[in-house]
Amino acid sequence: MDLGLKGKKALITGSTKGIGRAIANRFAMEGADVAICARNGDEVTEAVANLKDMGVNATGASVDVADEANLKGWINSAAKELGGLDIVVPNVSAMAGNEKEDWRNAFEIDIMGTINTIDAALPYLEKSDAGSVVAINSVAALQFFGGVRSYGTMKAALINHLSNLAHAYAPKGIRFNSVSPGTVYFEGGVWHTRQREMPEAYEFALGFNPMGRMGTPEEVANATVFPASPMASFISGTNLLVDGAATPSVQY
Q: What is the pLDDT along the chain (252 residues), one digit of tens a residue?
């Protein structure tokens, strides 16, 4: 299926490993030019080189999304280098706990980082004929899991925010959606670390998956790129679960 992404310009934050890297790769596989960022500059350089090897224009920089000026400066620079922006994927999270500092970090990174990313990109998306934002969220926004943490609260707030943006910008043709992964396993990721350091916690979480396994970054990437694409031109305001039926609820 041709998703209509060839030549489109996609920007993904937090995209040198795991889900973010898989999303950047998937856009490049579809022929989209890509801008990526992460805090580790060496990892950004390596990822950009790999994306260019896939035959697309790619750019990247070391960016701390909690630094508003740094973030917005990079988005403007990336848009100029790519020749505009059509798609934005905010994909950075503090993965924070329940201490006061965790709540502050989660607000600055998950909430304000996403808001500032979208705000900086909107002038470019308004000029696009296929403007789209897909925020990477979490099933933690919808269920009790892992105790009281700032993480789930912030993710729930983002689902609401993206839904409101979808309604506000529908007349301008800009779509806003969320993708909420369940437990996703990859080397160096959260669940790989827990498998090694906290095997009981890992097995407990694995037991919540009806399919008997955790998801992969590539599966989340596939579910992200489609709603971001022109092929999903009438889908907006949606939160898509990518969790192998693990969430114990019925969506209305």
A: 899 999 999 999 999 999 999 999 999 999 999 999 999 999 999 999 999 999 999 999 999 999 999 999 999 999 999 999 999 999 999 887 789 999 999 999 999 999 999 999 999 999 999 999 999 999 988 877 666 789 999 999 999 999 999 999 999 999 999 999 999 999 988 889 899 999 998 998 899 899 999 999 999 999 999 999 999 999 999 999 999 999 887 666
Question: What is the value of pTM for the model shown?
Answer: 0.95
Burial environment of residue 219 by CB neighbours within 10 A (0 to 12, 13 to 18, 19 or more) = middle
Identify the CATH homologous superfamily for domain 9-184+216-240: NAD(P)-binding Rossmann-like Domain (3.40.50.720)
Decide if 124 is catalytic: no
Q: Tell me the torsion sign for CA atoms 13, 16, 17, 18.
A: positive
Q: Which two tokens stand for residue 182?
A: 């369940």
Spans of all domains in the chain: 9-184+216-240
Q: Which of 124, 151, 169, 202 is catalytic?
A: 151
